Amino acid sequence: MATYMTVRELYEGVYSKSLQDGMKVEIDGWVINNRFMGKMGFINFNDGTCFKNAQLVYDDSFADFEVSEKLRLGCSINIQGILHVTLDGRQPFEIHLTKLNLIGGVDDTYPLQKKKTSFEFLRTIPHLRPRTNTFRAVFRVRSVLSMAIHEFFQNEGFVYVHTPILTSNDCEGAGQTFQVVSDISHPEEYFGKRVTLTVSGQLHVEPFCEAFRDVYTFGPTFRAEKSNTSHHAAEFWMVEPEIAFADLYDDMDLIEDFLKYITKYVLANCPDEIDFFDQRIEPGLKEKLNNFVNKDFVEVEYTKAIDILLEAKKNGHKFNNDNIYWGLDLESEHERYLTEEVFKGPIFLTNYPKEIKAFYMKQNSDGKTVAAADLLVPEIGELVGASEREADLDKLTNRMKELGMDVSSYQWYLDLRRYGSCPHAGFGLGFERMMQYLTGMSNIRDVEAYPRTYKECDF
């Protein structure tokens, strides 16, 4: 009688020596590769339970030889066989087939082949690309990273809040929102007002912060930004914690602890996937991630950063945008220069000019800057945006009026400053940008299951 197992269980059992050589096993899964050499054939086989494949062996004496010989990449099969432990070999084990059933075949139109396939082509078939090595690794890391995020906050006593996707408030005030309508000829008929897809859960999670103290939301957000870069998407996920009785420095401590925790978690729980990315996607990735978790993040004030950039320009460094001045909203090339050339690691850039930051950020005593911090990392640039929130009702209201905002529609948000206000702070982490940093994948379209970008929404 064969024992039904998964590939993951086989690897764990062989390495722990709890499985015996010669035992009969049964598995369901898919053909990754089928090679016939002389009188023997070798099938690379994966059942989705781990990144590694199992090797199935058959020869011309096998009763199901004709079926085995014709198996193609992508076929789903059920197999039975004898486990042979080979810890000293290239494979820790292999399975010599005794029975094989073809469950689902593939025809000549199957678009995946043994040869290397470009990411650009794979974006046209997102429903099939999880079957490739790269995307098996990407989406397992995405799953594990999601778990790491929840585990960190739950272990720290945070309350998880499901903030709405439909909203009548624009958190960032940039106007780059998708309007929601049920009848295009009467766009405001359903809700009686203009409603959009959320660009951030921050405004809606803040009220819970002033009841539960430490809270977070983690969900999809949407930006109608007509951008076609490798770092922008119309739909993406955000991690947004909010902490009460806290200032910007408490927030920065939380960011550092959080990012190091989730990075260590992925390194520990996806070793095969990280090895693959290190070898095939970004050589040196493991060293980069280990440095990330072991090195202290440096704080640099925005004003000092501008001075550094001006000095670099004076000394001949070429920036595409060399119009550098105090008040500039730094571009990725400036952020990468600071992290890669100057500080050689992550930095918190703090105390930005208020004119380039959102209305809700705490105004500093100088009247020019706000208590904001962006975490900048090599290769990516901005990874996290953070701030202490303005807790003073008059200052917040006046700032909203300065920006020409409709203050009447934010009265519910201002209530938080009227009724038991307290210092509080929070941050936003772009989940996909963290995925890019952890995997070395250069395009945001390749870390989302079904990417939605400008002029692209095919599935």
Task: Draw up the topology in text.
Layout (H helix, E strand, L loop, with lengths): L2 E2 L2 H10 L7 E14 L2 E7 L7 E6 L5 H5 L6 E10 L7 E12 L14 H4 L10 H23 L3 E2 L5 E2 L28 E2 L4 H11 L1 E9 L12 E10 L3 H22 L1 H10 L4 H10 L3 E4 H13 L17 H11 L4 E7 L15 E9 L3 E8 L4 H10 L8 H8 L5 E7 H9 L20
Parallel strand pairs: 1-2, 4-6, 7-10, 12-13
Antiparallel strand pairs: 2-3, 2-5, 3-4, 5-6, 8-9, 10-11, 11-16, 13-14, 14-15, 15-16
Helix pairs in contact: 4-6, 4-7, 6-8
Explained architecture:
It is a single chain. The chain has about 450 residues and is an alpha+beta fold. An eight-stranded mixed sheet has the order 7-10-11-16-15-14-13-12, with helices on both faces. Strands 2-3-4-6-5 form a five-stranded mixed barrel. Strands 8-9 form a two-stranded antiparallel sheet. A hairpin with a 2-residue loop joins strand 2 and strand 3. The protein starts with a strand and ends in a 20-residue tail after the last helix.
Number of helices: 13
Name the helicity range.
25-40%
Widest beta sheet: strand line-up: 7-10-11-16-15-14-13-12
Q: Which whole number gives the mean pLDDT?
A: 95
Class by alpha and beta content:
alpha+beta
- Gyration radius (Cα, Å) is 27 Å
Task: Give the termini distance in whole angstroms.
Answer: 44 Å
The count of strands amounts to 16
The topology string of helices and strands comes to EHEEEHEEHHEEEHEEHHHEHHEEEHHEH
Backbone shape: elongated
Low-confidence stretches: none
Sheet with most strands: 8 strands, mixed
Strand portion, in percent?
Answer: 15-25%
